[in-house]
Amino acid sequence: MASLAQETETPTVGRRAVIYRMVTPEHVCPSGLKALHLLRRHGLTVEDHPLRSRAETDAFKAEQGVATTPQIWIDGIRIGGHDDLRRHLGLAVHDPKALTYRPVIAIFGMALALALAWAGAWAGQGPS
């Protein structure tokens, strides 16, 4: 069995992928859309199987013994969901629950820029 490192170095062009993803009138799975885009962007030929109802999705998950969709296979080997696909392709997996300080840094950066601009405007006015 090949290691993950060996699999991620394998070119994906010319390979076949199969994806099962939820596409109902009420909901289109965003992870399914992202996975479909990643597969195509990496040059895989994609066989897309949209699951068109909640009952069809639940039946698929029960049959496969999985908790979520999408589910992806590449060249007949089950990869898993969107995050598993990212790992398989050697891409970083973003943790949506991870804390980020970007908004705080942006606010303090803007406050600093405004303070410096205001101080610079006052510095040029000197006593009359």
From TrEMBL:
PROSITE patterns: GLUTAREDOXIN_2
UniProt entry keywords in alphabetical sequence: Membrane, Transmembrane, Transmembrane helix
Protein name in the entry: Glutaredoxin/related protein
Alphabetized SUPFAM superfamilies for the sequence: Thioredoxin-like
Domain of life (superkingdom): Bacteria
Keyword set includes Transmembrane helix: yes
Membrane-traversing stretches: 104-123
